[in-house]
């Protein structure tokens, strides 16, 4: 499969909606121990929105009240979405791990682009989003839903 020519090929609103509507369990790779960091803010928001957050951090035992795991493979049970907050040059390894654990979706956070990793995850059947923020997209989805209800 040839990777798309633009990172925008992985910002399909229908895919974003499908991921956020279907996901229940989100593994947050690179969830920081510092609550001021974007990964902690986004994860806390998603947790408050009703998602189960599974922190993936090599040294933390617990984050956001949830047991942290050193790798995706160490997580017991199913993961719907792998949300990656690690540098783009690590993305291929995280995409491969997401495929190995049978995740349904793989999301590389805002500002991060790795088309090879995205194409690998997509070719394995995962829904893929890249260079967008799960918190921002979730808020947009909720706002759109509320606007539709008001009409």
Strand content: 15-25%
**Biggest beta sheet attributes:** 5 strands, parallel
Number of strands: 7
Low-confidence stretches: 1-8
Blueprint of the fold:
Blueprint (H helix, E strand, L loop, with lengths): L12 H10 L2 E5 L8 H11 L3 E5 L5 E2 L2 E2 L13 E4 L6 H11 L3 E4 L6 H9 L3 E4 L3 H17 L1
Parallel strand pairs: 1-2, 1-5, 5-6, 6-7
Antiparallel strand pairs: 3-4
Helix pairs in contact: 3-4
Which key terms come to mind for this protein?
single chain; 151 residues; alpha/beta; 5-stranded parallel beta sheet; 38% helix
Structure commentary:
The strands form two sheets. Strands 2-1-5-6-7 form a five-stranded parallel sheet, with helices on both faces. Residues 1-8 have low confidence and may be disordered. It has 151 residues and is of the alpha/beta class. It contains five helices and seven strands, in the order H-E-H-E-E-E-E-H-E-H-E-H.
């Amino acid at each position: 499969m040839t990777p798309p020519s633009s990172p925008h090929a992985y910002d399909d609103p229908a895919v974003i909606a499908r991921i956020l509507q279907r996901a229940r369990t989100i593994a947050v790779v690179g969830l920081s121990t510092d609550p001021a960091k974007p990964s902690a803010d986004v994860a806390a928001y998603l947790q408050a929105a009703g998602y189960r957050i599974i922190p993936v951090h090599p040294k933390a035992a617990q984050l956001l009240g949830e047991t942290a795991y050193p790798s995706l493979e160490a997580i017991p049970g199913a993961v719907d979405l792998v949300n990656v907050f690690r540098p783009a040059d690590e993305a291929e390894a995280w995409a491969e791990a997401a495929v190995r654990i049978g995740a349904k979706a793989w999301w590389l956070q805002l500002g991060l682009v790795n088309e090879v990793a995205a194409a690998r995850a997509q070719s394995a059947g995962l829904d893929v989003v890249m260079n967008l923020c799960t918190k921002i997209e979730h808020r947009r989805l909720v706002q759109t839903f509320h606007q539709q209800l008001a009409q």
